[in-house]
Amino acid sequence: MPKKARERWQRSPTPLESWSDAEGANSDGEWEIEIIGEEVDEEGNVRYEAEWGTWSRKDGTNTTWDNDLLQPQHHEEWDRIQAQRRLDLAKESLDVKVWATLDIHNTNTRLRAQAYDEKLKAAKRTHQDDSDDLPARMAELMASQAHLFNEPSISEPSTKKLKTSTPRTQNLRAKSFSSVGKRSSSITSGKHSIGETSTASTLSVGTSGSSRQTASTLLTPFSVSPPPKRIVASSSSKGKGKRVAASPRLRPLSPSPVPMPVPSETRTIKPLPSRSGRKVSRRPTKTTREILEDCWNKMSNSAAPISFFNDVDDEQVPPLCENFRYLESVYNDPNGFQVVDDGFLVRCDCDVCIEATYCHCQSNSGLVDERGHRAFAYTVDGLFAFNVSPGDEVVECNKCCRCDMGCQNRVSQQPRDFSVQVFKTPDRGWGVRSMEDIPRGKVLGLYTGLLRTRRAADDLGHDRRSYCFDLDGQEVQDGADSENDSMSGRDEEYTVDSLRCGNWTRFINHSCDPNLQIYLVLHDTIPDRGLHYIAFVATEPIMAMTEFTFDYDPKAAVAPIEGKGKGKVVIPPGCRQCFCGSSQCRQYLKV
Ligand SMILES: C[S@@+](CC[C@H](N)C(=O)[O-])C[C@H]1O[C@@H](n2cnc3c(N)ncnc32)[C@H](O)[C@@H]1O
């Protein structure tokens, strides 16, 4: 990545604010606010930038993005004016500007600013007869332009010298937002004493130090909220209808991958009647399956092809969230949990990493060979050496090391060189297999998705956890019991959620007699912080077209199954019947 681009993604540190000596309140202890900007986060939530009329920081800045301070009536006028402006835009033209960006927050925000949704609706109304085709045509357009988005430069390690930004600490937890169209509008609410019982228009912020402290822990990196004892949303008409530039202080943070459309079922394009009355096809016919294959293959960073196959029923592709984003080998890390300053990475100076003993980045590794000498986790043929204790992290060479991508100690970073097929099974949804023979020890890929804290993942609820993989190493650690984890540590533990983004590994089904196992691997971040990747490796030679499986609950493999052999096995709560079909089947799996 060019230096300039790297710098663009650097995170600005959160300024610390003194809460005790805030000035600017009127004689009634009130502050005036005005909504001046908005942004849309990756979940589609709108957030507002508020400008404080009589309060500012020492550096003169006076806006915050702390929406906990706002109530609906504070932004309803803004919403109304913005909605009207978008409708006006849609009436003027249905064009939407396409640009290459890696940042989903900016993308969402800019699309909203261009009235994308309103234009889409208007386009559908205008092309009533062709409305069914519109999503398909947009999907095709996106697929044909996927190269614009240049995903490898997100953080796919196609070149090893990617730099990242400043170190993160817990109190610098960041959310990446950007503002569009600073625009003044006015809002009015009553005067409210903080600390009084909340009413519909009272801002529920306390005056006590502890309340302020609570508020401060919720700050976004661009905002430090003043301590409003009372807040009055002013009814000024300042700048009404005027668009002004976005705040220059705002910078996008971790780049998020670009959403690719998931077309709805059956995407054969209907021919339209030509002027002569003859039916002509306006564009090449593509099926849903082909469109999705195109999207994923363009986004998979020069890895071998992915295809979909179903001879079980009519479903052309697996059910996926709208705008599911394909990520071959990196996390979507909008909070920058993985990001560390290069200075914290231990680097090696090897031209070629042959001896782990001399490879400096391995100096803290506990991996040893049978003679007790430090060893790599991979053989010279690039296969997993199975010399890693369960739960230990394999530390691969990182972006600061001198060696190149072909290094023996970068196996999980190298592009996938075998083609995979995601296929429909008769009884376990979609599964995945290789189109080629796979040797024992082959590293197949990394589980990718949205990086969340465990606490945030726990809040999702049980039914949303089917595609969550906890990064606590418990899956491979003997004797550990994740159920007994102390809840206090959950903000420092992480989970990968592949519901909305991820790769082919999210389709690997469970088997009680699997042909894959997982191990923990990392590069470009600090070890022992639970921010590794989960890598899948073949534990036996796997013939082409054989389904890949791993054991979702390896601890259960050694625990006796209650009731087994005495008739019907009772499926415990939180589990479902297992259809792996192996002779070792434990009858149920945790979901
Ligand atoms: C991570 S997903 C695997 C991909 C999934 N089959 C799909 O179609 O998206 C896990 C889910 O697959 C299903 N599954 C995986 N292995 C299974 C098995 N051995 N028996 C029954 N269901 C299984 C369960 O519904 C489970 O919650």
TrEMBL record:
GO CC field: chromosome; nucleus
Example GO biological process: methylation
Transmembrane segments: none
Organism domain of life: Eukaryota
Keywords assigned: Chromosome, Metal-binding, Methyltransferase, S-adenosyl-L-methionine, Transferase, Zinc
Gene3D superfamilies linked to this entry: SET domain
Domain Post-SET: 574-590
Domain SET intervals: 418-553
InterPro entries: H3K9_Histone-Lys_N-MTase, Post-SET_dom, Pre-SET_dom, SET_dom, SET_dom_sf
Cellular compartments annotated: Chromosome
Pfam family, one: Pre-SET
Keyword Transport in annotation: no
Sequence ranges of Basic residues compositional bias: 276-286
SUPFAM superfamilies: SET domain
Biased composition (Polar residues): 164-173, 187-223
Region feature Disordered, mapped onto this chain: 1-30, 149-286
UniProt domain Pre-SET: residue ranges: 346-415
PANTHER family in UniProt: HISTONE-LYSINE N-METHYLTRANSFERASE SET-23, HISTONE-LYSINE N-METHYLTRANSFERASE SUV39H
Protein name (record): SET domain-containing protein
Species classification: Eukaryota, Fungi, Dikarya, Basidiomycota, Agaricomycotina
